[in-house]
Amino acid sequence: MIAIPPIHSGQVPVLLLSQPTDFSVQLREQFEQEKIPLRQLECLDQIQAALQTNPPQLIILDCAGTAVAGLALCQEIRFGYAGLLVAIASAEDEQTLLLALRLGADLALSQRDGVPLIAAQVKALLRRFTPVAPPKLLTFGGITVDASRRDVFFAGEPAQLSTLEFNLFWTLAINAGCVVSRETIHHELYCSSYNGYDRRVDLSVSRIRQKIGDDPVMPRYLKTVRGVGYQFVGAPG
After folding, report:
1. Is the CB of residue 204 less than 8 Å from the CB of residue 194?
2. Can you point out the beta strands (E) in the chain?
């Protein structure tokens, strides 16, 4: 069994997006008992700011009472967040649970499951998907990919990649020399299957190339493999 790694100072593995309710209070208290740090936020802007500064291991989205708005938030969060996402709906709202899974949630629960069971399932999800000793720093010639700082550096200068752009670059860099399919990239970024025409990955690669000065015709780092995906071609430093 893989244990949840120790929580470092300032690290918040779980974010809860919810308005103040009896349910959110009970959930926070249960997580405190489980010794899992949880931070509650009340709007999408706060979540997006947190993703830029200290991305969590998991986000809990409370969809109860505002199913339509909650599902829209689920989709919006998934666009820029590749981590674990749990949606919680009201007691009788089975359709919301199904739609949440289709929109990118990794787990969809009902409030009727009860706070202790919800917390236990979230803890099990964290334990199951917490990577073991992931690499933090990769060097390729004059480029450094820093997972701790979540950016790419040239001669010490940051490229200032967005969260989504860094996640994409990291996916390619840790598979340096190998072709990574659009299907794999799409699943890593959005936790959903590639539909054959979604251009978000291609647009992200184009923005990364602009920021790192990589020529798409004669690339030093990001090579397009037509009909398949992308390949990181930088030589290890």
Report:
1. no
2. 14-17, 38-41, 58-62, 84-89, 107-110, 137-140, 143-146, 151-154, 157-158, 179-181, 222-225, 229-232
Kindly state the greatest CA–CA separation across the chain.
58
Lookup result for tokens 């025409």? 197
Token pair of 174, please?
A: 């840790």
Tally of domains within the chain = 2
Domain of 189, CATH number, reads: 1.10.10.10
Encoded tokens for 95: 């359709």
Do 114 and 150 fall within a single domain? no
Residues in the chain: 237
CA atoms within 13 A on the CB side of 169: 31
18 and 120 part of one domain:
yes
Task: For strands 107-110 and 84-89, give the pairing.
Answer: parallel
User: What is the per-residue pLDDT across 4-23, written as a single tens digit (0 to 9) for each?
Assistant: 333 333 446 888 988 888 98
Give me the half-sphere count of Cα atoms (radius 13 Å) on the Cβ side of residue 207.
15
* Site of tokens 């918040």: 12
Q: Kindly report whether the global pTM for this prediction surpasses the value 0.85.
A: no
φ, ψ of residue 123 to 5 degrees: the values are -60, -40
Is residue 166 domain-shared with residue 90, that is, in the same domain?
Answer: no
- Look up tokens 């072709």; give the residue: 179
